[in-house]
Amino acid sequence: xxxxxxxxxxxxxxxxxxxxxxxxxxxxxxxxxxxxxxxxxxxxxxxxxxxxxxxxxxxxxxxxxxxxxxxxxxxxxxxxxxxxxxxxxxxxxxxxxxxxxxxxxxxxxxxxxxxxxxxxxxxxxxxxxxxxxxxxxxxxxxxxxxxxxxxxxxxxxxxxxxxxxxxxxxxxxxxxxxxxxxxxxxxxxxxxxxxxxxxxxxxxxxxxxxxxxxxxxxxxxxxxxxxxxxxxxxxxxxxxxxxxxxxxxxxxxxxxxxxxxxxxxxxxxxxxxxxxxxxxxxxxxxxxxxxxxxxxxxxxxxxxxxxxxxxxxxxxxxxxxxxxxxxxxxxxxxxxxxxxxxxxxxxxxxxxxxxxxxxxxxxxxxxxxxxxxxxxxxxxxxxxxxxxxxxxxxxxxxxxxxxxxxxxxxxxxxxxxxxxxxxxxxxxxxxxxxxxxxxxxxxxxxxxxxxxxxxxxxxxxxxxxxxxxxxxxxx
Length: 475
Description:
about 475 residues, two-stranded antiparallel sheet, alpha+beta
């Protein structure tokens, strides 16, 4: 990194406070009204991202219950058996169930717990070939408890399919944050341009006022002896006053622009100013710096990451379903008559499941090819954007270096210029007032040119830093 340093000192009145560009930017950023829309978008994307993660990785717990009454009427005609059958049945159903599940980000596996309990009560009217025999009432409970863990080994391995929505929402959130920062920086660039223009008008006004005061003193000194020269000098002073009025009008308009941005500041007391030392950091190796820091390139890179995430999903979707599952269950029940005694059954199972559509998935292949083509489009977009940024930065670097050379030459001319030589000759009676005026005019033009060159340098520096995304305090 190369630092170009040029010292340039201006007079500031001790009756006012210097209001720096850094303070101006900080107060602009503190005013959230300008960025409310973008801030809301960032909050929305963050909610979506957190919601997608919770939807995928949080525990999911479902509880169910069922209460029912079943009535069944069954009548057999020409029934000749002595075995009882249920002629009229009333059954009360009472069931509760609970399911708990969770997916894991680390490997895409899923863990499931379930519990079901049934408490049916049944009343039956028993008949045989001779008709009604007896009433039969039964009550029982059925408990089913199970746990299972499934790990995808091919398709959806590591959750590459199920986690796509969350992964994309993370990238969308990062993109929205970059949009906010870019919006802030573009806004700041426009307002700082207004700030720099204000300083330029103020510097020129100060320079002109000094010249006018000096010329007025000269006129007062000769007004009783050189009437014709007084008229010539008066016309020159009037010319400078007209220029001064024009600059003051522009300064007033510029003050209105700054006040609209930050209403709490009184710019007649807090006078905007630029550093007395001008410096700019010009990057030697611009390409890696841009790739690491420029938000426009970072956003294209996020676009590429999103596209690659789609490619990973569709590539993985072409694979076979091949899952490993281990599960265990306990089933227990108890009735109230001998033929339905209490029982318990424990089951442990491990299995590998495989399935693959031999006909393939045409739709999946179409999307895979589409996003592969889009990847090349995005890569080209990145390359072109990088070239454009590097070209613009290169031009500004040349402009800044040339501006510094011109400013140095102008300062040398000012030092070499003998500002009061013709004026001294005039007072000695050996010169012409017109030559003295031309001498003052040349000196003042050099002063104004020096201010214009410095203001242009500050504007080029602002554009340069904006291209490199270095305007925000946290950049």
